[in-house]
């Protein structure tokens, strides 16, 4: 909101990020001390800082506490089916290259049921930003073990401790081809905001993991105290190491949490590669179709050739 517009309103009647938030939907559904709200605040600050207008970005989410973020952002918002945010976002990216799709997802939604979509969108370098709010469990459905739960951590379905190897998300994203990969926590609000801003302005598949407290389920189950206590854990256990290797970004229960920007490289996006392929195949005909009609027409024309 502009300074002039703010000046005309009483201080209590507007939110500083009113241009980006559906403030009429507040209060939100998240529990006290949950890290999702903090992450949303970083996100709206980053959206403002990225220089995008609200009609240049669309948010897509799946199902979960983190998935509810889409409903609070005042931009085109898609609250889709569980694990399918990335395919919806890919469709948006291909249909309208002027829009930057932003996927906001939880560790379960994005990496368990949606894991296959995640690795292939990264491999293809689809132009989108993916934010994973990692609280180490399936929170919305009752704190079940998930694909990032550290070994020995307690969850409602692992009363004797998790025993499956978890995914190391930065390593998974980098190994799949993401051009931007960073990890921060809900404590590191300035770093998270900066990473999201960089990701939103980066062409290609950018990925930001935010480690976030779930005080109602995961933190309580593991006797880590309140959400504030977990923030102290984040402060004490965090090690900032930009460019850290895949082995260094593993998270062990009770161990250090390596944070930083791990990948920032340039690579043609899927959309750019597609256009190059069409130009090679159709030449002037593709340019004419691109200028006058839709990409679907170019595809029909290619099939006929
Ligand atoms: C096809 C399908 N399977 C299972 C579910 C139940 N379900 C809803 S949210 C969720 C897990 C969400 O976990 P996560 O993505 O980590 O989000 P969080 O709630 O932790 O933020 C599951 C299993 C569903 N809605 N649809
Ligand atoms: S259940 Fe956990 S993740 Fe969901 S809103 Fe509550 S604290 Fe946040
Ligand atoms: Mg989760």
Number of domains: 2
Oligomeric organization of the protein chains: single chain
Helix count, per DSSP?
A: 12
Q: Percent of residues in helical segments?
A: 25-40%
The number of strands is 8
- At CATH level 3, the topology of the largest domain is Rossmann fold
CATH superfamily of the largest domain: Thiamin diphosphate (ThDP)-binding fold, Pyr/PP domains
How would you spell out the order of helices and strands?
A: HHEEHEHHEHEHEHHEEHHH
CATH architecture of the largest domain, please? 3-Layer(aba) Sandwich
Low-confidence stretches: none
Bound molecules: thiamine diphosphate, iron/sulfur cluster, magnesium ion
Radius of gyration: 20 Å
Q: What's the CATH C level of the largest domain?
A: Alpha Beta
Please explain how this structure is put together.
- With 305 residues, the protein is α/β, with parallel strands linked by helices.
- The protein has 2 domains: 17-266, Thiamin diphosphate (ThDP)-binding fold, Pyr/PP domains (Rossmann fold, 3-Layer(aba) Sandwich), CATH 3.40.50.970; 268-305, no CATH class.
- It is built from 12 helices and 8 strands.
- The chain has an 8-stranded mixed β-sheet with strand order 2-1-3-4-6-5-8-7, with helices on both faces.
- Helix 2 packs across helix 7, helix 4 crosses helix 5 and helix 10 (270-282) packs across helix 11.
- The relative contact order is 0.12.
- The structure holds thiamine diphosphate, iron/sulfur cluster and magnesium ion.
């Amino acid at each position: 909101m502009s300074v002039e517009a703010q000046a005309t309103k009483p201080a209590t009647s507007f939110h500083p990020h009113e241009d980006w938030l559906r403030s009429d939907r507040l209060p939100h559904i998240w529990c006290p001390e949950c890290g999702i709200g903090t992450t949303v605040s970083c996100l709206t600050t980053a959206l403002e800082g990225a220089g995008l207008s609200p009609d240049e970005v669309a948010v897509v989410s799946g199902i979960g506490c983190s998935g509810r973020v889409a409903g609070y952002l005042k931009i085109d918002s898609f609250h889709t089916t569980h694990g399918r945010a990335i395919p919806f976002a890919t469709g948006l990216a291909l249909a309208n290259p002027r829009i930057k799709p932003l996927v906001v997802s939880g560790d379960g939604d994005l990496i368990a049921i949606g894991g296959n979509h995640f690795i292939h969108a990264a491999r293809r370098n689809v132009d989108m930003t993916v934010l994973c709010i990692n609280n180490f469990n399936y929170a919305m459905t009752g704190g079940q073990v998930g694909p990032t739960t550290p070994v020995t951590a307690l969850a409602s379905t692992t009363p004797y401790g998790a025993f499956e190897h978890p995914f190391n998300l930065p390593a998974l994203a980098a190994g799949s081809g993401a051009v931007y990969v960073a990890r921060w926590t809900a404590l590191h609000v300035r770093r998270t905001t900066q990473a999201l801003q960089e990701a939103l302005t980066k062409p290609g598949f950018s990925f930001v993991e935010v480690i976030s407290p779930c005080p109602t389920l995961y933190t309580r189950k593991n006797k880590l105290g309140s959400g504030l206590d977990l923030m102290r854990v984040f402060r004490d256990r965090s090690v900032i190491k930009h460019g850290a290797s895949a082995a260094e970004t593993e998270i062990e229960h009770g161990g250090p949490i390596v944070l930083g920007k791990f990948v920032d490289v340039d690579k043609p996006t899927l959309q750019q590669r597609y256009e190059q392929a069409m130009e090679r195949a159709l030449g002037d005909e593709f340019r004419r179709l691109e200028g006058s009609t839709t990409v679907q027409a170019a595809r029909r024309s290619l099939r006929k050739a």
